[in-house]
TrEMBL record:
SUPFAM superfamilies, A to Z: DNA-glycosylase
Keywords: 4Fe-4S, Iron, Iron-sulfur, Metal-binding
Keyword Iron-sulfur: yes
InterPro entries xrefs: DNA_glycosylase, HhH-GPD_domain
Domain HhH-GPD: start-end pairs: 36-194
Entry protein name: DNA-3-methyladenine glycosylase III
Gene3D superfamilies: Hypothetical protein, domain 2 (1.10.340.30)
A biological process term (GO) from this entry: base-excision repair
Organism: Streptococcus gallolyticus
Sample GO molecular function, one term: catalytic activity
Length: 215
């Protein structure tokens, strides 16, 4: 069956149910976890996140004021502790400087917001897109490894890296809302956990035989 992008989203939502992703109590927690999850497993990122919660309750000012050696120890389970702790403090400082007000940040930066995020230490394309979707409520697609694997299985070729898919879907088309964008990412990642280990299990899924049409 040929599917548009929105058809794909609806089919996944119908078969899998809502994931309500990102599972967090605050946007501050999401900012921290979006950095922790880089190049590590969800389990390791969660371990580091829980240590940070215990030490700071995800209060960004507490983290900014924390000695870097202390923060590095909290980040350690997620790996790359020096780089990630520096990124957490820089992104937190920037967010605090804007009064932790995502609505006003969007109003201030408009279409240049993603570029501003990319200028912050430790924020690459995937992290920037996560922040766009989950902090700033934009209909941003997150072209992570599970998304690229899924789209490849659905007939989209040459998805060799993050940029190769992101350039095709810089922003999700109508009628996607930001809430749809958040849920779509959650569905894709949950689908990947179930059917891409190994990737041959895709043929057992409810999407086997479908073809994605990107317009």
């Amino acid at each position: 069956m040929q599917l548009t992008l929105y058809n794909l989203y609806q089919k996944m939502l119908t078969h899998m149910g809502a994931t309500n992703w990102w599972p967090a109590d605050s946007k501050q927690q999401i900012i921290i976890e979006a950095i922790l999850i880089q190049n590590t497993t969800e389990l390791n990122a969660t371990r580091a996140s829980q240590l940070i919660k215990t030490a700071s309750n995800y209060d960004l000012q507490v983290l900014v004021n924390m000695p870097k050696e202390n923060l590095e120890e909290l980040v350690r389970p997620a790996g790359f502790m020096k780089n990630k702790s520096k990124a957490i403090q820089e992104v937190a400082s920037w967010y605090l400087a804007h009064n932790e007000n995502p609505t006003k940040i969007v109003q201030q930066y408009g279409s240049s917001l993603r570029k501003v995020l990319l200028s912050l230490h430790g924020v690459g394309p995937e992290t920037a897109d996560v922040l766009m979707a989950y902090i700033f409520d934009q209909p941003q697609f997150i072209a992570d490894k599970y998304a690229r694997t899924l789209f490849t299985q659905l007939g989209i070729n040459d998805l060799t890296d993050y940029k190769s898919l992101a350039i095709l879907l810089a922003e999700l088309p109508q009628p996607f809302t930001f809430a749809d964008a958040q849920e779509f990412h959650g569905l894709i990642d949950e689908f990947g956990k179930q059917y891409f280990h190994p990737v041959e299990d895709f043929q057992k899924s409810f999407l086997a035989g479908d073809q994605l049409i990107l317009k």
